[in-house]
Amino acid sequence: MPQTLRILLVEDSEADAELVLRELRRGGFNTSAKRVASASSLSQALDSESWDFIISDYVMPGFDGLEALALYRERRLDVPFIVVSGHIGEDIAVAAMQAGADDYLMKDRLARLVPAVTRALQKAEMRRAHHRANEALRDSEERFRQLAENVGAVFFMFERPNDSSPGMLSYVSPAFRSVWGFPCETLIGTTDLWLKSVHAEDRELLEQHLAEMSTGNFSLDFRVVRLDLKVRWVHFRTFPVRNESGQVYRIAAIAEDITERKRAEDELAANARKLEQTVAELRVTEDELRCSNEELSRARAELEVRVQQRTAALAEANTALKGQMEERKRLESELLEIAENERRRIGFDLHDDLGQKLMGISLLLKAMETNLKHKNAPEADQIRDVQCLLSQVISHTHNLAHCFSGLDAQ
Asked: Domain range spanning residue 383?
């Protein structure tokens, strides 16, 4: 299927523009073209639309190809640009190429147009592919950098390994400072400086295995001594990187700080030893308990007999106590009944005997008061006062009788 090109023609001659488009169509291209003939119209076309190709005349009234190239380069477009002109010399062609044109040709040799366009399109596609590859490489490097700088493990990259060494250190991640305790920059370009901080008791073992790093995956736990003399445990792993022929040309390594894990393992081992000691002590205690089990069984049997005997004695005492409690309840009931009867008797005596006698005295005092009043004797007032006191005594006696006997107030 023919390729369709959106072509921007910078051409003052409509006839010349049609010749260019006809040559392209003859070469198998479908075209969608726009013609401009001034700097302002070219700027507007470049800013408002996207183009697959730009073909520009070199000599135009008040405008030329170099100015068109300058406007094109200002926008940093990755679009092929070819200069086609009827009057162009070698020096002008060189200037056009230096200004950014992909090619140039004469209008009377348009047979070269289709190959030139094809070649320019291929070069543009190669540039775009190269740009995409560079972008992908930068993205990959950025992802690797972010990964290396944001994880706790240390990343190493060694170049040109040999049988006795992983090679020259070309990269180490920032986590190296927090684990090893000194700057990363001091390691770049060295081969064994990172080994000097390995604990003396572990360095010989590590050096014995350095040759294994260039032949396959390698893993080892060892200690490093920081500049502040603190000791850290690391888990060191290497991964050889091979070229197309299978030869190892680079070694990637990861060092993970496992100090806390080692500390936890040591604590776990210590706890396991304590547990074993506790189990042994429990077994001794179990043997001792087993030996005394028969004595405990006999003591328990004797205790059960004593409990049964004591239970029988308590049951007998309980029965006697219940009888005594019932007798006491009966006596208390009789005593309460006697007390109630005595209280009622006292109430009736107060009401029927003392009350009536006091009432009789009150009537006699009333009669005396009346006689003394008729005689105008001063003792009448004293008799009245006595009668008032007597009324209070009668009322109090009546209340007492009511409380003792339970009678309704008269």
From this structure: 296-405
